[in-house]
Amino acid sequence: MESTEGEANISTLLLQVSAGNFSAPNVTILIIAILILLLMSGIIAGAETAFFSLSAKDINYLNAKEKTSARIASQLLEHPKMLLATILVANNFINIAIVISTNVLINSLMAPGLNPVLSFLIQVVSVTFLLVLFGEVLPKVYATQNNLRMALLSSSFIRILFSIFKPISRTLVNSTSFIESKLGNKINKNISNEDFEHAIELTVGHTATKEEVNIFKGILKFGNISAKQVMRTRMDVSGIDHDMTFAEVRSYCLEAGYSRLPVYKESLDKIAGVIHTKDFLPHINKDDFAWHTLIRSAYFVHEGKLIEDLLKEFQQKRIHFAIVVDEFGGTSGIITLEDIMEEIIGDIKDEFDEEDLQYKKIDDNNFIFEGKTLINDVCRIIGIPSDTFEKARGESDSLAGLILEISGRFPKVNEVIKHEHFEFTVMALDKMRIQRVKMTIHPPVEEEE
């Protein structure tokens, strides 16, 4: 008996919808439902544009942030195929729900006996207008201009959809992977940096000089280098104590020979600003001068920042000097415009550079380096790929750090550390710091035929 009454209620409801006899409360519920669905569609469309337009800099920012939304966004970006599949599936389901709800609402508001063709046109125009404007155009325009903000705002909602539609998304991704496995070898081939370098040597190597070829290679790698890889480390930073007198500062600047120096309070982790030595010229003959008035604001960058982006910021802000900080806000080192340009055009020597400060070439297979020399510079000087020691270097950036990673302990003077066809001989130590290293390159052993 109860089942018969339920079937009668459903039949009555369907008749009301078809006849356009919807009550006011039902119409209100439909309007609210459509508005919610449009909001969901807009968030999904904006999330699609936002997540897949994030640059490497934006992704590094998300990874460095400890906020819940940033952490969720980072986790979603770890599975880009599943993320895209979830967005597309969810968007289709919601758009279908919008179409059905809108048609029901329009039918309930239309006058009985309206021309069916006219009714159909009204429904199509109304649904298309709502979906295109509020479900596609507006959210995607906003996401294009605020991709990082939109990714953070939508991350929690997308994760819920990710969990709901996971079975369907996984099926789609697996199907796509199967098709790629059949056709991918023919249409999709990833070209590595080594292939690009080889192509450069083949195309311009016969007509260009060695320096020009190195510039081409430097441009190729430029977009993947971070500030930490090219900066001058904290150990090698010359800074001015905020409590120094003008006479002490003047003497220190003359001895250091740099045009810009950071000013710190207590330690290098508390940078007060930057001083330009040229600002001292009008006061050079004064014995006592309030030199703190010459301190300029320092520009801080994260050590994970790509130098490609940093170069643009240097150009826009018209600055040549930045303080590099780690994830805890401590000073990691400094980076200059010259450091960035050297990654493209090679070492720049000026009248203050000491020629043998960083390295000395004995012959083609033997070099002497200072322990603080960056691994990237070592590779560039001896003419080997910059990723030669990528697996062995760990978190180290300098040659001394590489030796410690390989040996697993602190070596002694004249001790030889071997790695593949390289030998590192420790020539000088200063307490717990490797000062000078002799590097010997042995030709790789080739198997006899």
Describe the structure.
- With 449 residues, this protein is α+β, with helices and mostly antiparallel strands.
- It has four domains: 12-182, no CATH class; 193-222, no CATH class; 225-345, CBS-domain, CATH 3.10.580.10; 359-441, Uridine Diphospho-n-acetylenolpyruvylglucosamine Reductase, domain 3.
- The protein is 55% helix and 15% strand.
- It contains 17 helices and twelve strands.
- It has helices at 2-19, 24-51, 56-64, 68-77, 80-109, 116-145, 147-164, 166-187, 193-204, 210-222, 227-230, 246-256, 307-317, 337-345, 375-382, 390-393, 399-407, and strands spanning 232-233, 240-241, 260-265, 267-276, 300-302, 321-325, 331-336, 359-363, 366-370, 416-419, 422-430, 433-441.
- The protein has a five-stranded antiparallel beta sheet.
- A hairpin with a 2-residue loop joins strand 8 and strand 9.
- Helix 2 (24-51) packs across helix 7 (147-164), helix 5 packs antiparallel against helix 6 and helix 6 crosses helix 7 (147-164).
- The radius of gyration is 32 Å and the shape is elongated.
- The termini are far apart.
- Residues 1-22 have low confidence and may be disordered.
